[in-house]
Amino acid sequence: QVRVEESGGGVVRTGESLRLSCQVSGPSVSHDAMSWFRQPPGKDREAVATITWNGYHRNYEDFAKGRFTISRNNAENTMYLDMTNLNPGDTAVYYCGVPNGQTWAFWGQGTQVTVSS
């Protein structure tokens, strides 16, 4: 059974940075793409970024381009999201997405990011 734990969230001010981590336990995901999603207050969950199994290809939503960097360490079954120049619009619960057939599964509780103005 896959177990996912997101961490690294917190309360920061506009313009500050955070590094989120996603630790996966159980079956190895070293040969799978992985993703970050987020759910802002009162809104649906949305994609943030995706990374291929080898890290060679990364895709970002427009709001993340130039500010967020997705990366992974397959030896440690860990994925990261480095976020810079945060603004209140980035306030959300951030989730790690693991492939589940043709969609993504969210096994973790997420990590809360709150950006104050």
Please describe what this structure looks like:
By secondary structure, the chain is mainly beta. The chain is built from no helices and eleven strands. The protein has strands at residues 3-7, 10-13, 18-25, 34-39, 46-51, 58-60, 68-73, 78-83, 92-100, 103-105, 111-116. The strands form two sheets. Strands 2, 4, 5, 6, 9, 10 and 11 form a seven-stranded mixed beta sheet that branches. A four-stranded antiparallel beta sheet has the order 1-3-8-7, with no helix packed on it. Strand 4 and strand 5 form a beta hairpin. It is globular, with a radius of gyration of 13 Å. The model has no long low-confidence stretch (mean pLDDT 95).
Note the main attributes of this structure:
4-stranded antiparallel β-sheet, mainly beta, 53% strand, 0% helix, 117 residues
Give a brief description.
The chain is mainly beta. The protein has strands at residues 3-7, 10-13, 18-25, 34-39, 46-51, 58-60, 68-73, 78-83, 92-100, 103-105, 111-116. The chain contains no helices and eleven strands.
The biggest sheet, with number of strands, parallel, antiparallel or mixed sense and barrel status, is: 7 strands, mixed
Distance between the amino and carboxyl termini? 40 Å
Sheet/helix structural class:
mainly beta
Mean of the pLDDT scores? 95
Task: Give the ordered list of helices and strands.
Answer: EEEEEEEEEEE
Envelope shape: globular
Total E-strand runs: 11
Helix fraction? under 10%
Regions with pLDDT < 50 over 5+ consecutive residues? none
- Summed up, the helix count is 0
Rg (CA only): 13 Å
Strand percentage: over 45%
